[in-house]
Amino acid sequence: MGGFIENLNGFADFAHIVPEILIVLWGSAVLVADLASKGSIKRSALGWMAGLGMIGILVVTWLLRPTDFAAHQVFGGMIRDDMWTWAFRVLFTVGAALTCIASVDFRPAKAGGEYYALVILAAMAMSLMAASTDIVMLYLATETASIALYLLAGFMRGSKLSAEAGLKYFVFGAVASTVMLYGLSLMFGLSGGSTGYEAIAQKLSSPELRTPALFSALLVLVGFAFKTSAVPFHFWAPDVYQGAPTPVAGFISTASKAAGFAILLRFLYYVLPPNASVAALAWVSLLRPFAVLTLLVGSLSALMQKNVKRMLAYSSVAQAGYVLMGVAAFAASSVPEQREQALAAVLFYLATYMVTNIGAFTVVGIVSQKAGGDDFKDFAGLARRSPYTALAMTAAMLSLLGAPPMVGFVGKLFLFRSAIGAYQQTTDVFFLAMVIVGVLMVLVSVFYYLGVVKAMFVDRAEGDAKPMYLSSAVRLVAVVTGLGMLVTTLLSGPLFEIATSAARAFLTSGQFVSQLLK
Amino acid sequence: MEQGILNGIPLHFFLIVAAGLFCIGLYGVLGRKNAIAMLMGVELMLNAVNINLIAFWRYVRPETPAALAFVAFVFVVAAAEAAVGLALIISVYRNTKSVDPEKLDQMKF
Fold first, then answer.
1. Residue A6 domain-assigned?
2. What is the mean predicted confidence (pLDDT) over A167-174?
3. What's residue A32's pLDDT?
4. CA spacing 20 to 30 A to A437: which of A35, A104, A161, A279?
């Protein structure tokens, strides 16, 4: 950041954050529309405005797709604009659009302009998280996203559960991010006052800094583990998901988690490049037990839940375990192709998980309003009340489980392949163990995912012959996510190509990097 | 470095004070039974970070203002966090008439 003034070349840098600028403008527009009309615009109209605007921004972002693997370090190296950043932008925009539209008919939240503005601004902060290559930017983007999500989790002011969820999320999040910040401040000192990732990486690679570098890296890891809800920093997840407004829980479990992985990967690769220092190696080897523990704890705890939202929370912890498996494979392999494959597998999985889980949470949101709760028993007889809702939920559960032909199967296949590749290359038995635990946990997850399906199709409830009214917003989200799960399976080839290009751009050093390293 | 009252105090003194402050803050968050006291603990932890950053600025790289800007950003984030934290505490208090986090046990499996 020291070079900010010299490197600020007019307004050219702003061209690299056009999607973020549009998102901020749109978020403000929604807020102002609500305020200026003094509440005469209906809440649902604001939701549609927010969601459709995000779809418009998605189109613009898609058109701005980078055609090469070039990396642009802009704003004095604080932000790195490349295809990897672009891919995450697309993810977060889709996530925010679906969340806004799914919230239109989630009545308990009484979502007004400020609710939609917070969702949209959180998406903006998340894409900056994916872009940041500077510890100041990393901290600011992470906190902007987190603070918006704390408010959203506690948004239902009259609900004890939501207030509790908001406060718990806040306390966990504030401590985790402050521990991370403390680690960053130590890194800042160790690197002789540098804030850019590459400059820090260069300084930290000297052998005499081994112990303090490892210590500060561990502190930073706490913040990332919180964001990705990896064990042992997952305790907030079940309570927050259960208490938060259901669409927000969907947003936190997908977009926020993806953003956590985005910063983890950037930090891992740029600040602690594998083989660069002993501290980096130690950190890399830590990822493997983390992945296995996250898988085990998430899957086994999900088995014991009676509430579907809590089950989905633990399942999302387990899903983070699968993604961590890919991250560990990425960090351990030294062959560029394998690294690229593992990285692409992680990105692909996060994308498919986003579509699937937002769909699942949308259905849970409908059921909790119509049946008065979100326990397994409230799903009884859903197939008779609303066959299409039950079908959408079944599709989501099968995809989360990883059953063909749903897209979750393809995603899991790529992740397992990258882990097996890492095993073949490093002949580290830990990778083999990881794959075996992963397969076993898929088998375990059959019980809790299909538990929902059984409740919907086999169990009966009183009055389940009465059909359920579905609003157009909910229908749209269910259709988009349901079709998304099938279409992404059919298009998994081209989509994985895009993910691979993004991974290649991630691994390319930019001009600014070589400039810094001089 | 210009003459000043701080001359002669080595860098690690500042770091030790910051580490102590950080630990007190962490103890405050984990050990206190009042949500507002927990919030104060978080603020102490953030101030420990600020001491670290300022000390590193003065001793490691006094010629660039990067650390000062970083500290200003940490202030802003701390203020935003305190505002949101207090709002959430009020929301909890209105619902439960208590700010004791241990009484927040609506959700269990």
1. no
2. 94
3. 93
4. A279
pLDDT tens digits for range A431-453: 899 999 999 999 999 999 999 99
* Torsions phi, psi for A196 (to 5 deg): -75, 145
Those residues whose C-beta lies under 8 Å from the C-beta of residue A447, and which sit 6 or more positions away, are A303
A161 touches chain B (CB under 8 A): yes
Is residue A276, in this structure, part of any structural domain at all?
A: yes
Question: Closest approach of chain B CAs to the CA of A62, in angstroms?
Answer: 32
Instruction: Report yes or no on A3 lying in a domain.
Output: no
Residue to test with chain B: of A171, A241, A310, most B Cβ within 10 A: A171
Which of the four pLDDT bands, split at 50, 70 and 90, describes residue B4? low
A193 touches chain B (CB under 8 A): yes
| Partner B contacted by A197 (CB < 8 A) | no
pLDDT at residue A337, rounded to an integer = 87
Dihedral, A209, A215, A218, A219 alpha carbons, nearest 10:
-120
Domain B11-103, CATH:
1.10.287.3510
ipTM over 0.90: yes
DSSP A437-473: HHHHHHHHHHHHHHHHHHHHHT---TTTTS-----HH
Chain A residue closest to B66 (CA)?
A2
Mutate to test the interface with B, among A181, A190, A191, A308 (most CBs of B within 10 A): A181
The interface residues of chain A toward chain B in range 290-329, judged by CB-CB distance below 8 A, are 301, 304-307, 310
Interchain proximity B84–A189, CB inside 8 Å: no
How many residues appear in chain B? 109
Return the residue of A nearest to B80 by Cα: A147
**Could you tell me the residue ranges of all domains in chain B?**
11-103
Domain count, chain A: 1
Tens digits of residue pLDDT in A202-259: 888 777 887 888 889 889 999 999 999 998 899 999 999 999 999 999 999 999 999 9
Which positions in chain A touch B38 (Cβ < 8 Å)? 171
Q: Give the structural domain span for A24.
A: 17-517
pLDDT, mean of residues A66-89: 89
| A508 within a domain of the structure (yes/no) | yes
Partners of A72 in the beta sheet?
A81
